[in-house]
Structure formats: C-alpha cells, structure tokens
DNA sequence: CATCGGTGGATACTAGCACTATCCAAACCG
DNA sequence: CGGTTTGGATAGTGCTAGTATCCACCGATG
C-alpha cells in the first residue's frame, strides 16, 4: 500500500508517519522508485503498537524506540531484549536521599521478600515502588501494601501469565509482554477506579440520609 | 516560616514555589509586610501533595489545579468536589469512531454490569477502559477482563475502602481519595510489574535448559 | 506527450508544558 | 548602614511530539 493508504487506515497524518520513519520507529517501506515505496500490514500493525504504547501507556517516543530497536535487533538474546523492554516501560526515578527514602527501601524489600519474588537489584519497577512508598510516608498514609502485593501476585500468576503464549516469533513474544504490561495495566487501573467510584457512591448513599 | 525554609524543607527551588503561588496551587502565606510572608506546615503539606500528584501520578499542573481549586472552594458540596477530583485524575480520551470502538463500548458495559457497579454515564474511567479495550481489539489481544474486574472489585472493597476514614475535614477527605487513587494505583502497578518479572524469570528458568 | 497530484527526503517551524532566570524595590538582620 | 532575602512581575529555557514547507521526481490520465 502507499503512504496515503497507510495514513487513512491508521488514522495518522502523513507528516506523523514520516516522523516515525525518521525516528526509526517504523521500518522503511519496500522502495519501488525514488519517490515511491510499498507498505504492508506489518507497517500498519507497527503503527498500532506505537500508538497503543504512546496513548494508553503514555510512554515517550524515546522509550518506544528503545523497545522497537531491541525487538528489531536479532543479535540480542530474548531475555536481554525483555530486560531492555522492561527498563523502557518505567519512568526514571531519582532517589531523594533521606531517612524516609531508606525506610521506603526497606519497606519495598520486605514486600518483595514476603512474596518470594526474585527481582534484579536495579529493576526499575522496584525504584518506582520505593518512590511511591516514600511519598506515602511523607504524607503519613499507610505503607502496608501486603494485601496489594498478594493480589498483584495472584493476578499475574493465575490470570495474566497463563494467557501468554511464549512460543512463536520473537517479536510477538516481546510484543505480548510489553503490550500485556501496558494495556492490561491500564485496564486494571481503569477498573480499579470504577470500583472505587461505585464503592464511594455506596458509602455516601448509606451515610448521607438524604440531600 | 520563610520562603527559604519552605524551599529547603520541601526540596523545591524558590522559583518553583513562586511558580506554584502564581498558578494558585499553593495559597499565599500570611503577609507580614510588603516583602515578607509567613508559611506554615499546611503549605509544606500542600507542596508534598502537589509533588506526589505530579511525580507519582504524572498529572499535569492544570489538573492538579482543578483538584486544589475544588478543595479550596467551600461552596461545593463534597460529592461534587469528588466528581471534579475524579475527572481531573483521568486523561481526556478522544473516541475513535468505528466498529472496534462500539464493540469496546459494549465490552465495557458488560464488565461494569457484571460487577454490579453503578457508574455515572460520563465517568472518565469508563472512557479510559473503552479506549484500552479498543486497542486490545485492534491488536487482537484478549478483551476478556472479567477476572481483572473481579480482582479490582475485591481490592477496592476489601482492602482500600475499609482503610479510608471518611470523617474529618473536607480537604482531608478529598486528599485521601485522590492520594489513595493515585498512590495506591501506582503502588499496585509497580507490584504487578514486579510480579510479572518474577513470574517470567520462573518460566524462562524452567523452559530454557541452560545458556 | 504534457501535466498534475501523490511521494520520499530534508529542513525548519510550532505549541504546550514545567519550570528558571532576571530584575526591582522594599525590608529585615546584624 | 550595608548586605541579603523577599514578594511580585516579566521574560526566557529545554524538551517533546509533532507540523509545515519545499523540492525534485515519478507514474497514471487524458
């Protein structure tokens, strides 16, 4: 297909697609002539991947590029590629040295140990957990996340992992891991907020006699 | 306390604090003279609230301002204020008309009905759920989120809601709702990613004979 | 065969966001 | 009394994710 068809089918402006080509997020089409190239379904799917990570996952273009480069680099072993992807999925967290921060690190350590998880020392998700615990401390909110960890563990092991198909081509492996993390994460967050809204409506109905 | 103490205790540059004052995120201090004002613990706490929403929740300043304005406006009934806050917590989602989108709306409807939630028609979290379902469809991933909804429901009703104290001054009510949504949401997401990392390590240990 | 609109490729420009920097005059502190 | 801090106003910065413009070219149309 031509650029204009890729544009209309993806819903993206031609200028935007050219930008992704420039940035290396989208592979070049098969060149037919100096001013003509042919794109196929894989390009369309790639665009959908980009937009899902960008709009739903709110990942910066630079992180998406890291993920895509790792996928496209056939010399990387799969587990390295997954490491790169996981790293790109997290925002960088700057430690704020101080007592609260060290306490938060210990809290995180305890949570992880209690679940029996084996986690790389510099896993980005660990830093995000520490940051959040740090803020909870500062604001004097409960840092007891044991039940959350428990439920997260069950969600992943009982529901999410069994539905992943680890075979197939390597790009679909990363895609499913990355998209699974981002999309099901966002989905769960939306569901959680809906549950809160419903629950809070219940509470105010029961406590407020009438308006 | 003076500006410089507020700055050192919060870890924020004076220029940044002045910016928040300009934007109305931080109330003016009690004026002592034309070039002197007095700030107290409430200002410090407000700064921590702002930074938690900004860094952990990644909310734009404009949304934080909406939340704070609602909190500071005593004429708003509490449930209206909560509605404003909930609205500000979500990113705007533009519908992408098409078959996939309508299907996604139905999927969302079914999920909500299955949990028995009563949800406002234009709840922003609903739109985010629809958007995510839409992307899942486009990428041919499973849109079966029943178990996720189930777990989200249990997380909220069994763990998060009981720990909220709905009495007390109105600003602490909103604060706890908003911070609860943002911070525990982020915490759960980090825990979920850690659980995935641990689970995927298990899988590759068991399937990869050796390196 | 002429020409007209859709390309590929390069370069420059833009909007929005979250700050930062600079300046000023007043005021406090020793 | 002199150096430092402050409140208040205005202007500028760096980054991100695109947009816009220009050009030469090419391929289908009449």
From TrEMBL, chains A, B:
GO terms of molecular function: DNA binding; DNA-binding transcription factor activity
Keyword DNA-binding: yes
Keywords in alphabetical order: DNA-binding
SMART domains attached to this UniProt entry: HTH_MERR (SM00422)
Protein's UniProt keywords contain Chaperone: no
Domain of life: Bacteria
InterPro entries per UniProt: DNA-bd_dom_put_sf (IPR009061), MerR-type_HTH_dom (IPR000551), MerR_fam (IPR047057)
Annotated ranges, domain HTH merR-type: 1-70
PANTHER family: HTH-TYPE TRANSCRIPTIONAL REGULATOR ADHR, REDOX-CYCLING DRUG-SENSING TRANSCRIPTIONAL ACTIVATOR SOXR
Protein name stated in the entry: DNA-binding transcriptional MerR regulator
Phylogenetic placement of the source organism: Bacteria, Bacillati, Actinomycetota, Actinomycetes, Streptosporangiales
